[in-house]
Amino acid sequence: QVQLVESGGGLVQAGGSLRLSCAASGRTFSSYAMGWFRQAPGKEREFVAAISWSGGNTYYRDSVKGRFTISRDNAKNAVYLQMNSLKPEDTAVYYCAADPIKGAGSWSVAALAAIHYWGQGTQVTVSS
Length: 128
Fold this sequence. Notes:
Blueprint: E1 3-7, E2 10-13, E3 18-25, E4 33-39, E5 46-51, E6 58-60, E7 68-73, E8 78-83, E9 92-99, E10 117-118, E11 122-127
Parallel strand pairs: 2-11
Antiparallel strand pairs: 1-3, 3-8, 4-5, 4-9, 5-6, 7-8, 9-10, 9-11
């Protein structure tokens, strides 16, 4: 059974940092694109960042470029999201995702239903 489990969310003041982790199990994800989406209250789930299977290519939504960094450790079947200079508008539930087919470069425009695997989410709250 494929499982993605997020951790690292919490409450932080504006300007602070958090590091999200996603542990994957059930199969080897080293050949999968992986990434993060988020969903704020009353809003649709949106793309945040994605990373290619090798880690050599990364992609971000414009509003987080320069503040967030995605990385992965294939030996640990894990993906991370380092979030710096957090803003209140970053408040959302953050979801880890993985897909064996859809390349990371297409995730920003992909339909959510096209992404195969999802975690349960971790809450990030940024206070002003």
